[in-house]
């Protein structure tokens, strides 16, 4: 699919691809993830300050570029091609939209400008491996089960002496070990009258303890968050949180879908180039009909996933289904890349495994694909939950 992009959108894509080709090759990625932050801080400042990536979809009144989700999705496609390790997803696709949807004017004015400029990074903390459920991508989030339960479940918040104090633990937070600002979903009202509300917590606040996890995909860092009577700032008044999370989930799914498509397309391009060079039985491997058929199947799959992702930019309600298409295309293409690179493809040192790990990790974080499709079908009225009325 070749979308009708504006000159400005073409320029975003061209500029970012040129920069990442110079600064974010496979060796650069491997070196960046070994740093304490998990990414190249100098490169992040360049894409944040010079290109304005975190603030692409932020209104100008709050210090952003004033574009929209389409420009952010295009940028994500290019960062996906290079597997750029960065706080972009957690900050621009999850935290910033939640602040825009639920924050007060004073909170937006205080936090959105530095987030848009890349001076601050942010992360969304929900208990357990429940991010996709909290965002409404793999199930209905309205019952709040994703936020834990009981006296010790998830994070608890209590109001005393004019301040909110948070106590608890979140085991798996995307970019949680390094984010400057944390958006934490916590229970209020005690055991008998519990409600889920959202709080802002400074990453360097007293009582915050964070540990970086060793993950399958080192370019997608995660951390454990422990809160011990940490002061928090209430973001919402207790209403609209679930709907806001669903809205953010759909737009984030579109961003993730284009990112997955970019990664799959690049893995496919590198594989096609390799089978043209690698010889077996005196001829290039790519000349064998079976190999051609396999690569042709992957090309069709990637293009279909790109079409679904671009459609979701226009219609965010299709974000969940587009994400399913993108994750499946990346998984299949990355697996094909490993196999067709032969002996070197099976070594951890080869770049093909970077894409394979990204595919596996993303499906664990935001999938599985079957659940994404089931939820999309349910939202479209094709499936019913037990006891629910038939769609009209």
From TrEMBL:
Q: Which residues cross the membrane?
A: none
Q: State the family it belongs to.
A: Belongs to the acyl-CoA dehydrogenase family.
Its keywords, alphabetically, are: FAD, Flavoprotein, Oxidoreductase
Q: Which CDD domains match?
A: ACAD
Q: Which SUPFAM superfamilies match?
A: Acyl-CoA dehydrogenase C-terminal domain-like, Acyl-CoA dehydrogenase NM domain-like
Q: Which InterPro entries match?
A: Acyl-CoA_Oxase/DH_mid-dom_sf, AcylCo_DH-like_C, AcylCo_DH/oxidase_C, AcylCoA_DH/ox_N, AcylCoA_DH/ox_N_sf, AcylCoA_DH/oxidase_NM_dom_sf
* Record-annotated Acyl-CoA dehydrogenase/oxidase C-terminal domain positions: 255-379
Listed cofactors: FAD
PANTHER family of this UniProt entry? ACYL-COA DEHYDROGENASE (PTHR43884), ACYL-COA DEHYDROGENASE FADE28 (PTHR43884:SF20)
The protein's name: Acyl-CoA dehydrogenase family protein
One Pfam family matching this protein: Acyl-CoA_dh_N
* Domain Acyl-CoA dehydrogenase/oxidase N-terminal: residue ranges: 6-119
UniProt superkingdom: Bacteria
